[in-house]
Amino acid sequence: MKIVVCVKQVPDSWAEKKLNPSDNTLDRDSADAVVNELDEYGIEEALQIQERLGGPDSCSVTVLSMGPDKAAETVRKGLQMGADDGVHVADDALHGSDAVATSLVLAAAIERLAPDLVILGSESTDARMSVVPAMVAERLGRPMLTFANKVELDGTTVRTHRVTDYGYDVVEAALPALVSVVEKTNEPRYPSFKGIMAAKKKPLETLSLADLGVSADDVGLAGSWSSVAEFATRPPRQKGTIVKDEGEGGVQLADFLAGQKFI
Amino acid sequence: MTEVLVLVEHDDGTVKKVTHELLTLARSLGEPSAVVVGPGADAALASLAEYGATTVYAVDGDGAADHPVTPKVAALQAVLAQTQAGALLVASGPSGKEVAARLAVRTSSGILTDAVAVHDGFVAEQSVFGGSTVVQSTVTRGTPIITVRPNSTPAEPAPADAKRVDIPLALSDADRSATITERVAQERTGRPDLTEAAIVVSGGRGVGSAENFSVIEALADSLGAAVGASRAATDAGWYPHQFQVGQTGKTVSPQLYVANGISGAIQHRAGMQTSKTIVAVNKDDEAPIFDLVDFGVVGDLHQVLPQLTAEVTKRKG
What we know:
The structure holds two protein chains of two kinds. Chain A is an alpha/beta fold. Chain A has a single domain, classed as Rossmann fold. Chain A has helices spanning 37-52, 72-81, 99-113, 132-140, 193-199, 209-212, 220-223, 249-259; strands at 2-7, 9-11, 33-35, 60-66, 85-89, 117-121, 144-154, 157-164, 167-174, 177-181, 204-207, 226-233, 241-244. Chain A has a nine-stranded mixed beta sheet, with helices on both faces. Chain A has a two-stranded antiparallel sheet with strand order 2-3. The longest helix of chain A is centred in the N-terminal third of the chain and has 16 residues, at 37-52. The radius of gyration of chain A is 22 Å and the shape is globular. By secondary structure, chain B is of the alpha/beta class. Chain B folds into two domains: 3-168, Rossmann fold, CATH 3.40.50; 199-316, 3-Layer(aba) Sandwich (Rossmann fold). Chain B has eight helices and 17 strands. Chain B has helices at 17-27, 41-50, 70-81, 94-107, 213-223, 231-235, 266-269, 301-316; strands at 3-7, 10-11, 14-15, 31-37, 55-60, 87-91, 111-119, 123-128, 133-139, 145-148, 163-168, 178-185, 199-203, 226-229, 256-260, 277-282, 295-298. In chain B, strands 9-8-7-10-6-1-4-5-11 form a nine-stranded mixed beta sheet, sandwiched between helices. In chain B, α5 (213-223) packs parallel to α8. The chains are: A alpha/beta, B alpha/beta. At the A-B interface, α3, α4, β7, β8 and β9 of A face α4, β7, β9, β12 and β16 of B. β9 of chain A pairs antiparallel with β12 (178-185) of chain B.
């Protein structure tokens, strides 16, 4: 069994984010970078499957990331958590790639790695589009089980609970397949000291677009199918009325809501 | 006029409010057509016509309900192939975005998600980075596929004669490769859907316990609102995760958002900052949520909310 987990490096949620005025892309240098939180659930899920199947001899876990040079830190974090090896797709031509272009590159890397199972986080905390997992699956033509909060492997069948508005659907497919996980699927582990030391010796391969057979014309700003025409920073909301509850706070709030025609 | 397609969100023909909003938006951009996938077109037709759909494409056939999202993708691909549509509008939710994502790749079309408005020329307005930046985006290839957040456009009826066009659903082997074997429905609360509710009442750490969420629910019910929760509340197990509002939960954009015992960390703000009116009740007068509010009460929610609920009930009489 071979599992690939896709991870993305994102600006820390707590950091102030901004766009580059020169080409309307995310200014990735302006904020501390971390592993996309939902991808950590993906890594944890892969490691738990590996443990259930008897360890690295019967199941390998590869961490895959696309991004600028420093995205290698994100792959390294996955290795520290316990993944066996890592692949980092880095190429100057990738700068400004939209979701469609990103999915092209990830799909090419996955084809090359030929895993039985691919696990992705269901969205990233920076762009929050939540479309890359579905696009990768569409390109690969393989079954996709999205928004899973429970993942079970049963021989060559993968079964998940897909979160819905009304509860969940039980969805199943034959391997090879893809799964995207949501928060609360599991509790991601912290890298141990031993894990951090061991990660230094684990293989981390860097691949270029040429290695993957992807044309530079199909990625980056030029290869994207959508573009940001303009952006503006919104002034902070005007500070509203704040009252201290002196026993009539609920009535005062009701007065405000009535004035706004909500009651 | 350019035909603008709207993917209909429905439960066996009962059309959701967000679809009426999208049809209203589509009328401002061109001639609205609705696409109904699966059984239910008969029941949906009148409601779609009421909000201005001039054509209703009913796509149904073998397997329509057995697979997640792929039947909708295949259906929309079939409709796009036989129309000259200028754009497709889809409700921005987890499923809608998944459908849009696959369709974009399948039809070599650009995709824009989470629009809060769509302007002439199919320019999508998006609110990013927790509402601090407003972006205008366009699609540069294919038919623009735009997912639009619920509550972006108020739904307004404009009756039209909807012409029905039936199209058989054709699924490929890949479309059939993931199968739904069971649907598990949790108990219905009787409240509106969180993502499309006009009013959302949320509780956070300050609520204090699972039992105390009854205070939040009582206020929500008096206002006809949906109930939400902050991550602190769902992490503590006080309220189910599907009601979590925030960065790793649901994004809501209601007319009124009532935050109770929620400090307003960026995690939470990312999921509610585009709400039209925001009010908050919190004991801590320095809570960051007060930077966002139109009206705030510094006080104990266990005192303020029951009083507010009683007042709302009394005034609604």
